[in-house]
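Comment on the following before class.
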Amino acid sequence: MTCIVQKYGGSSVADVDKLRKTAGLIAGLKAQNFDIAVVVSAMGKTTDELVRMARDIASKPPRREMDMLLSTGERITMSLLSMALHERGFRAVSLTGSQAGIITNDRHNDAQVIEVRPFRVQDEMAKGKVVIIGGFQGVSYKRDITTLGRGGSDTTAVALAAALDAERCEIYSDVDGVYSADPSLESQARHLPELSYPVMQEMSTAGAKVLHSHAVQFAKEKNIAIYARSAFEPGRETVIRRISPGAIIGVQAVVSEKQVERIRLHGQDAHTLFRQAAEFLEGEQVPIKEVNVTGITAAGRHSKASFVVSTQNIYGWEQIKAALKHKIGDRMDIDTDLAALSLIGEGLNRNNLTLLETLDLLAQNMIPVSGITTTSFRISLLVPSQLVEKSVQLCHTRWVADNSI
């Protein structure tokens, strides 16, 4: 029997009425004799509320305890959705990430899936049941509950799809796919009917919230097509799949991330400072987005290094930053009130024309750029956070709205 994995985000299961509607969608698919595994997020803003309560209790909550707390949100959803399916006459069973065989490393709050053992899921499917799995969570090889970071339910779904050899993985949310910019920031944002794995992965890394970058990596490795759809407004969708190199050239999307800070190291022996800071951040499980090292010599003179850190989902970031400052001293500076503006697409860096024209465009509009990073599919610029929305609109008009993709 053909297996399909579906994932429903928080907006699709935000309240009891939406849970019932989602159960109806699943029941309709099950009636067509598919094997179905459904991955769910926490209801609505449940995770945000749990984080708020934790921060009311502790300025820097222990990461292990945060995982124990946050994993409860998905458990509520999965049990209620299972009940809703039973009410419709369909047998269903809810499983936690650990019961579903999601094995991770022991990195709390941002764990990586290292293996999926879906034996329980397969056994329940063989009995004709719909299997409802709590996303965003797993169990470490130390048998601790772990969470996969914001958007981790996407990773759960794609990892399960790979392990189950599913026909496809469907990701449902409140939007009908992926757009060339955040529609709330850019009224001219275009719906993108298909994207390659590398482009979608760069979009996710740069701040787009539609899919988690780890999920896209899993899909790419296993060649699983992802269908991003709206749960309750069927019609358009975005398919993320393997696309021949060169099939789509140019800027496809403009993405931004507001809450970033840059840690700058300078002075003699900066390579030692670099190692100390990197080890400290790794110990605090702080994800580093970009690293820039310049001028490190054998003598260590006139050398510089910098990290760009996404601070949005780091619990106790101010305390971590203060401890790092105490460790490094006056050879470290921190730039705050920054945002990352990213142009995403293929062929952007075959020459410097896209970058140079973007720099000219921003300069003409009095938007300073304090850092540049490029990859094969991305150009990222650090700009003042209060000007990032204007930057998105300018770049989207120039590179997307005024050009055919």
